[in-house]
Design brief:
TIM Barrel, 8-stranded parallel beta barrel, two-stranded antiparallel ribbon, 16% strand
């Protein structure tokens, strides 16, 4: 049974910007996050604590968090970590929530994170314990759950098995991610129907890429299947830089337009978010993939 309230996790400042060729200044990143917060977004992925040589856009993660420290009461600023070293950096920087990603396939895990799936799960369990001891919220994402660019289809049974192992770390939330954008709505429904009975106490989130133009349809299916949160990226920017031919995330304003017209509550000011997407276009100096930023609201009097 779906809930009227859907929490939006904004990933533009991290997952969105990481694929941009133009490295934004720290000031622009901070302004981006503040505009998103002013629009009502309360969980924002702001940085990844990874090797800056692999993801140059995230080299100023600590500086971004330091600048956002006065705003910490308004939103939870999430840092992505892939190992204990990254977690220690995130904790020192003042992150109140950390996220980690575990691939569903060996090939993607090795190419994206430089470790096996088993090694990744072991790192997660260690990080989850450290985060709990430090009073930091910790959630984990299973990536490539619907397909891998190197191994092809991924079975729901494989995802359930990984989720059960991750649940031993007592995550605040587990997310499923269509990293390369191959899923269709029936697959989303089927996977969640397999996961929810297996882990009935788990809070579920979903992350979709729009590579084959099914992202919004998949988000609709996930919302109807009962996920409590959905990821999206302002303007639809981003995508995994380590996945061949990956394109952008779901545009946050497109997702919220759909949810609001469906009668679902997100707590986000859509006109303010559209203004932020337009601002982002000017900073990036190119159009963003989102559609609502181009078409505007309907009817014009709607909030």
């Amino acid at each position: 049974m779906s809930s009227k309230r859907i929490e939006i996790v904004e990933v533009g400042p991290r997952d969105g910007l990481q694929s941009e060729s133009q490295v934004l200044s720290t000031d622009h990143k901070v302004e981006f996050v503040r505009r998103l917060t002013a629009a009502g977004l309360r969980r924002i992925e702001v940085a990844s604590f990874v090797n800056p040589k692999r993801v140059p856009q995230m080299a100023d993660a600590e500086a971004v968090l330091a600048a956002l420290a006065p705003d910490a009461a308004q939103a939870r600023f999430i840092g992505l970590v892939l190992n204990v070293k990254g977690f220690e950096r995130a904790r020192a920087a003042g992150c109140t929530e950390v996220g980690m990603a575990i691939a569903a396939t060996e090939s993607f895990s090795q190419r994206n994170q430089g470790c096996s799936v088993d090694e990744g799960i072991a790192s997660w369990l260690e990080i989850a314990a450290l985060a709990r001891a430090a009073g930091i919220r910790a959630q984990v994402t299973i990536s490539t759950v619907f397909g891998c660019p190197f191994e092809g289809e991924v079975s729901p049974a494989r995802v359930v098995e990984i989720a059960e192992r991750l649940a031993a770390g007592q995550p605040d939330e587990i997310a499923i991610a269509d990293t390369i954008g191959v899923a269709v709505p029936t697959q989303v429904t089927g996977l969640l129907r397999a996961l929810q009975p297996a882990l009935p106490k788990t809070k579920w989130r979903a992350h979709f890429h729009n590579t084959r133009n099914t992202g919004l349809a998949n988000a609709y299916a996930a919302a109807e299947a009962g996920v409590s949160a959905l990821d999206a990226s302002c303007g639809g920017i981003g995508g995994c830089p380590f996945a061949p031919a990956a394109t952008g995330n779901i545009p946050t304003e497109d997702l919220i337009y759909m949810l609001h017209r469906m009668g679902r509550d997100t707590g986000v000011d859509l006109p303010a978010l559209i203004d932020t997407s337009r601002w982002l276009q000017s900073v990036l100096q190119h159009p963003v993939p989102g559609m609502v930023v181009k078409a505007g609201l309907f009817p014009k009097t709607a909030a």
